[in-house]
Amino acid sequence: MSAKILSVALLVACFGVIAAQHYYQQGHHEEEHYASAHYEYAYDVHDDHTGDVHGQKESRKDHTTQGEYYLIDADGHKRTVTYHIDGKSGFIAQVHREPIKGYQAPQPQVHKVLAVPVQKAYYQH
């Protein structure tokens, strides 16, 4: 039984080698082909309940990406990060912070817990 399995495995392996030789003899070469990348997106979040305010926009064409994101820091400053990537230059960013006039951080909501007296019951047998 194992001899039959070994024979089939060798036959499959030989067929794979023959198919690969034929593929390369026909002038085909394995190359990675990538379509040019092109996209744009943007979003903004402004949640009054949690105080979460942030957003981002980005665009890319081929090997060049540029974008910006912002958020409101806990100390009331708006932080904006502008960035770009051009080919193999890596991620290059500039950070800008500015105070927001009249900013008040969201106040944590305090939930009052009502204390209810517990009645103790004593049972006698």
At a glance:
The protein has 125 residues and is an alpha+beta fold.
Helix-strand makeup class:
alpha+beta
Strand content: 35-45%
The unreliable regions are 8-12
- The side-by-side strand order for the widest beta sheet comes to 1-2-3-4-5
As a percent range, the share of helical residues equals: 10-25%
**Assembly type:** single chain
First-last Cα distance: 80 Å
Instruction: Write down the Rg.
Output: 33 Å
Shape category: elongated
Mean pLDDT over the full residue set: 78
Main β-sheet description: 5 strands, antiparallel
* Order of H and E elements: HEEEEE
Individual helix count: 1
Tally of strands: 5
Characterization of this structure:
The protein has 125 residues and is an alpha+beta fold. Helix content is 19%, strand content 38%. It is built from one helix and five strands, in the order αβββββ. It has one helix at residues 2-25; strands at residues 38-47, 52-61, 64-72, 77-86, 92-99. The protein has a five-stranded antiparallel beta sheet, with no helix packed on it.
Features:
signal; alpha+beta; 125 residues; elongated
Please write out the topology.
Blueprint lengths: L1 H24 L12 E10 L4 E10 L2 E9 L4 E10 L5 E8 L26
